[in-house]
From TrEMBL:
Lineage: Bacteria, Bacillati, Bacillota, Bacilli, Lactobacillales
Enzyme Commission no: 6.3.2.17
Cited Pfam families: Mur_ligase_C, Mur_ligase_M
Name of the molecule in the record: tetrahydrofolate synthase
GO cellular-component term (any): cytoplasm
InterPro entries: Folylpolyglutamate_synth, Mur-like_cat_sf, Mur_ligase_C, Mur_ligase_C_dom_sf, Mur_ligase_cen
Span of domain Mur ligase central: 42-262
Family: Belongs to the folylpolyglutamate synthase family.
Gene from which the chain derives: folC_2
Length: 438
């Protein structure tokens, strides 16, 4: 049973009526709390959470009080609303939700309702205002133009991570339609930054929208990164006449692409703030030991267990590259499961490219949207000509895999797929670790 009150709100209302108009009215009723701080809006398909977390960490190290709103949440729902890396307390979270319920009951004809995500977003905006933050790093949900977060009055930055094919049918059925939907978060006169290696048609759409909005448009292809071959935790950067190096704690090859976007934001931010801070030292202090839950995260070392919420083609492709780089020769046991509305067939084709790997197939903790384990087994059989074991419960799949690892110390366990899969596994491992330390 949930400890929070989000279940009192509708599960999904994204495409039902003018959601942004309603949310703007709600924010107005609350005194426009979103205007009491500067907002850095992060949108895209993959890398949003990591990029947002890095920016928030840098701002905090620069002495700012920073609100961070991310989704989907990892672990407890309160982790989606944080100030200087501290999650909102559940009592405070429920207090804001209660107030919001009362407001909606008296709103117009009393028949208007908010979704869980919309309620979390409004709660974050109020909480950050009441707590007097200087900046808010605001991660989009699944969309752009119609995403709840686009109800804010204005933004300082619009930052776009890699845009790919996901949530088709809601955001659009082509990469051009999806990019156009996401581009609508760009605000008049702000600074818009795009990740490196965007598809050319995506960059063109974002650039066009920025020009239409009289926004400054910056492309992170300008920033070059070299990874030191003898030390993967050390990065060297080059941007125009600036160069330097810093320690970087995030694992996963795809994080190098994300940090290029973050660096371009940082250089622009420092220029406008006339900052004299030592950039290399700042980067090392903020990012040297940073971790992002659920993104190529090492959750156990004996045995090695890593989890990654990659669930679409671009993210799975990046995951495969990271596994090949980090574990080139080790035997790998991969626990995986997807939602049925994802492109799971292509995901399986990509996962099958990982050398020296075997699979354990399960299903995410989402009764309505889960892809049945037996269907996933059939897909793997068609792709690999092998029939891998299936498990209805992700935790049973994990225990089975850990038993195998106890007999083979070199075995690396990887968990990849839907956040509805990695969340229960991550919670179980953290609780088990906590219990063993008591």
């Amino acid at each position: 049973m949930k400890d929070d009150l989000t279940s009192h709100f509708a599960e999904f209302l994204y495409d039902q009526g003018d959601r942004i108009g309603l949310l703007k009215q709600v924010l107005r009723q609350l005194g426009n709390p979103d205007t009491n701080y500067s907002i850095i809006h992060v949108c895209g398909t993959n890398g949003k959470g990591s990029t947002a977390t890095m920016i928030a960490a840098l701002l905090q190290k620069m002495g700012q009080r920073v609100g961070l709103f991310t989704s989907p949440f990892i672990g407890d729902v309160t982790n989606s609303i944080r100030i200087n890396q501290q999650a909102i307390q559940m009592t405070h979270f429920n207090h804001y939700l209660n107030r919001l319920q009362q407001l909606m009951a008296s709103f117009g004809d009393g028949k208007q309702e908010l979704s869980e995500f919309e309620a979390q977003f409004v709660t974050a905006m109020q909480y950050f205002s009441d707590q007097g933050v200087d900046y808010v790093v605001l991660e989009c949900g699944l969309g752009g133009e119609l995403d709840a977060t686009n109800a804010v009055t204005t933004t300082m930055y619009s930052i776009f991570t890699k845009i790919g094919m996901d949530h088709t049918g809601i955001l659009g059925n082509t990469i051009e339609e999806i990019a156009t939907t996401k581009s609508k978060i760009i605000r008049k006169g702000n600074t818009t930054i795009t990740a490196p290696n965007q598809r050319p048609q995506v960059s063109a759409i974002l650039s066009h929208e920025a020009i239409e909005k009289n926004a400054v448009f910056l492309d992170a292809n300008q920033v070059q990164i070299d990874q030191q071959s003898d030390d993967r935790t050390s990065l060297h950067y080059q941007f125009n006449d600036r160069a330097g190096h810093f320690k970087f704690g995030l694992q996963g090859a795809y994080q190098v692409e994300n940090v290029r976007t973050v660096l371009l934001w940082l250089f622009d931010f420092q220029k406008h703030q006339r900052s004299t801070i030592d950039t290399d030292r700042l980067l090392t202090q903020a990012l040297g030991k940073l971790s992002v839950p659920g993104r190529f995260e090492t959750i156990s070392t004996k045995p090695i267990i890593m989890i990654d919420g990659a669930h679409n083609v671009d993210a799975i492709s990046a995951f495969v590259q990271s596994v090949k780089q980090s574990f080139p020769k080790q035997p790998k046991l991969i626990i995986t499961g997807f939602l049925k509305d994802k492109d799971y067939v292509d995901n399986v084709r990509l996962l099958a490219q990982i050398p020296n790997a075997t699979f354990r197939l399960t299903q995410p903790d989402n009764p309505e949207r889960k892809l049945d384990k037996d269907h996933l087994q059939t897909v793997f059989k068609n792709v690999t000509e092998k029939r891998y074991p299936t498990f209805r419960n992700p935790i049973v799949a994990l225990k089975n895999s850990m038993a195998e690892a106890s007999e083979n110390p070199e075995l690396v366990i990887l968990v990849v797929g839907s956040f509805y899969l990695i969340n229960p596994i991550r919670d179980y491992l953290i609780k088990t670790r906590s219990d063993s330390n008591d």
